[in-house]
Amino acid sequence: MDSSDLISKARAELLLKAVEDYFIEPSMTVCELVKRMGNSGGFMATHVSLASEIVAEMWGAREVKRILSFTGNVVSTGLRGLIAQLIREGFADIVITTCGAIDHDIARGVGSKYYSGRFDVDDVFLRDLNIHRLGNVFIPVESYGAAIEGFVKKLIDEAIRVKREWSGVELLKLAGSLINDRASLLRSAYERSVPVVVPGIIDGAFGFHLFTQSQLTNFKLEVFEDEKILADIVFGAEKLGALIIGGGISKHHTIWWAQFRDGLDYGVYITTAVEYDGSLSGAQPREAVSWNKVKPSAKSAIVYGDATVVLPLIVAKAMCDLNKLRY
After folding, report:
1. Which residue among the candidates 65, 173, 251, 293 is catalytic per the annotation?
2. pTM of the predicted model over 0.90
3. pLDDT per residue over 103-115, tens digit each?
4. What residues contact 278, with CB distance under 8 A and at least 6 apart?
5. Alpha carbons 288 and 291: distance in angstroms, whole number
6. Burial class (CB in 10 A: 0-12, 13-18, 19+), 218
């Protein structure tokens, strides 16, 4: 085959799928919308569609162990319910998240109210009114620190009646049993016996109050037991997949462990971070290949966008595809 034939072949392989216009109809389902977005040619719309296909495939494959990884900020929003649903409906074999996620889940799980706000409100004014701002979510001061402190005290009182030393996974399972909220990720994980691993468990209100209680009682936290549970799942997996929402420590811990079995077989990243500052949060799956954290043969996608917008689209379409596979 001469060079002109090679060029023609390469060109044909790149021009396989034409851009298709689409129109919105009042009766259109979310699944149909995402399908049409996938045929629209650009830009993140096609990535949303591809991500949904990968999520559906790894969700439906029995040989795949699935990691659900996310940051704490999204748990302050209504997306918390969708994350809890993913756990309850069997997507996650293990959860890796942040202490902030635990903070917000506990606060809201015990009845604290968070409120829809605005990005542009003066923060000095909010401080004077005893209101925390997380983006455009308003959190009354009494809905956060005091609520979490009271819960942790109750939790540790329950825990030390049983034994002195607890792993993070064990303690969060007990925490889930004390929360009566269908939208709680800890409650869902408790009901499904899904371990919740928080590698930075001290980095937040929950962890701070664990420390405080350890000074007042004989409570001890053993974090290495969490790593044993994670190792058993990672090394026991025939294939490994991950849905990674956001970046930071939860993303890093997920792909860090994946490298010891030659990387993820499936990976979907949702992020607003860019790769040009060399950050882990912005690093694409292709960079993870160089670290052995994602396999070169892996099915992967990265979706740049706000998880509160794109995750519901991805999950809705994945559920449609999964139902087709089942029935």
Report:
1. 293
2. yes
3. 999 999 999 999 9
4. none
5. 5
6. exposed
